[in-house]
From TrEMBL:
It comes from Chenopodium quinoa (Quinoa). Its cofactor is Fe cation; Zn(2+). Gene3D superfamilies: 3.60.21.10, Purple acid phosphatase-like, N-terminal. It is an enzyme of class 3 (hydrolase). Its EC number is 3.1.3.2. Residues 58-153 form the Fibronectin type-III domain. This is Purple acid phosphatase. GO terms for molecular function: acid phosphatase activity; metal ion binding. It comes from the Eukaryota.
């Protein structure tokens, strides 16, 4: 009888241990609790952030992006509402009185019943590295003046700070995200945007007037530092029922990329070098199967990355390859199956994605052993593999996704459904720091962070999260 009692209790104890270990299998699922008024609503059209600049035909929606492969060119874009006006950008270095001119192009497009303003794009070439430039757009009165900083010359130990925002939209939360990014003392110098920009396609006929409001909203930051674009599903704007059959039309007209400088054949996938980083932008919603232009481009690109010059290899895409949220679960699986072996082989340091409206950071894991007959089909710890960071938490009108797969998978280090932004701060060839900032916290507070050891220079060094709160 006594032995039966002992046996029964041992079984119960064993079950408890198994259960606890299952619960503890993964990393941290944050218990942070947001206030209940988190409903994300687009800011009204008369909000100050959407204000049209005063004056007849004043340039608006000014934004810049990198204009070549190494950071010595900038593409300036702006829109004039009433007439084409001037295509010229006047620019000068801070320490120079010599004003130079660059000539751009002007485009318009129609989308259902909407006709765009006059969209200007002007590439300024031949800039000096590490220099502050002022620039002016418009003609006569009003003329609008802005400035930007060019990056230092690419080199292995050049410190540089990137910001990360995704799935931004134009809600009050979106505005908080941009404000937190602007006021973050870590001072991002270039923003890596992980796709889903305006969410205009949530309006009837994808009301492109909401592309214009978004352009005016981001100007306060994007006119002063480059935003590096990647396309999300909200950029597709494919509405065949009303005759709109060209995917990515508004996005392509409005947000040019320097794709030809990296020998890409389409603006949706390309690479740039910036300081000590080599950034590869992938297109989740363009063909990427074997033998497609994007696949061929990536196969040419990866062996060319010079880790002696740019040690940090960063990939940006919209749809995450690893995500443990229920929403969009496994949507990135086809891209993962095809491309993960290459990202591991070439020791990509970190892959940033959006799409899932929440935050998640993975351990370094890979799932590349499967060969149809060996049954090896789960992620395993792999120090050659990238860290996967989902940062689709910019604050758009679709709101956050709270539902997570349970238990937390072993590969998931930290996950939380809050709006925020990221900072990727490269210190030198061996170390970089990543911090995630949620909008409810003070500007300097990091809710999650990680010291990254460069995979090329320190391929087997394990990393540890600094602090999660
Ligand atoms: Fe998305």
């Amino acid at each position: 009888m006594f032995m039966k009692w002992v046996y029964a209790n041992l079984v119960i104890l064993l079950l408890i241990i198994l259960n606890v270990s299952e619960i503890c299998e993964g990393g941290i699922t944050s218990s942070f609790s947001r206030k209940s008024n988190d409903l994300s609503i687009d800011m009204p059209l008369d909000s100050d952030v959407f204000q049209v600049p005063p004056g007849y035909n004043a340039p608006q929606q000014v934004h810049i992006t990198q204009g070549d492969h190494i950071g010595r060119a900038v593409i300036v874009s702006w829109t004039t509402p009433d007439e084409p006006g001037s295509n010229t950008v006047t620019y000068w270095a801070e320490n120079s009185t010599e004003k130079k001119l660059a000539e751009g192009i002007v485009l318009t497009y129609k989308f259902v019943n909407y006709t765009s303003g006059y969209i200007h794009h002007c590439t300024i070439p031949g800039l000096e590295f590490d220099t502050k430039y002022y620039y002016e757009v418009g003609s006569g009165n009003p003329l609008r003046q802005f400035w930007f900083l060019t990056p230092p010359e690419p080199g292995p130990d050049v410190p540089y700070t990137f910001g990360l925002i995704g799935d931004l939209g134009q809600t009050h939360d979106s505005n908080r995200t941009v404000t937190h990014y602007e006021l973050n003392p870590m001072k991002g110098k270039t923003l890596l945007f992980v796709g889903d920009l305006s969410y205009a396609d949530n309006y009837p006929n994808n009301d492109n007037a909401r592309w214009d409001t978004w352009g005016r909203f981001i100007e306060r930051n994007a006119a002063y530092q480059p935003w590096i674009w990647s396309a999300g599903n909200h950029e597709i704007d494919f509405l065949p029922k009303v005759g709109e059959t060209i995917p990515f039309k508004p996005y392509t007209y409005r947000f040019p990329t320097p794709y030809q400088a990296s020998h890409s054949t389409a603006p949706y996938w390309y690479s740039i070098k910036r300081a000590s980083a080599h950034i590869i932008v992938m297109a989740s919603y363009s063909a990427f199967g074997k033998y497609t232009p994007q696949y061929k481009w990536l196969m040419d690109e990866l062996p060319k990355v010079n880790r002696t010059e740019t040690p940090w290899l960063v990939v940006v895409m919209h749809c995450p390859m690893y995500s443990s949220y229920v929403h969009h679960y496994m949507e990135g699986e086809t891209m993962r199956v095809l491309y993960e072996p290459y990202f591991v082989k070439y020791k990509v340091d970190v892959i940033f994605a959006g799409h899932v409206h929440a935050y998640e950071r993975s351990e370094r894991i890979s799932n590349i052993a499967y060969n149809i007959s060996n049954g090896v089909c789960g992620p395993v710890s792999d120090q050659s593999a990238p860290v996967y960071i989902t940062i689709g938490d910019g604050g758009n009108l679709e709101g956050l996704v709270y539902e997570m797969t349970q238990p937390q998978p072993e590969y998931s280090a930290y996950r939380e459904a809050s709006f925020g932004h990221g900072i990727f701060d490269i210190k030198n060839r061996s170390h970089a720091y990543f911090g995630w900032h949620r909008n409810q916290d003070g500007y300097a507070v990091e809710a999650d962070s990680l010291w990254l050891h460069n995979r090329y220079w320190h391929p087997i060094q394990e990393e540890a999260s600094v602090a999660s709160m």
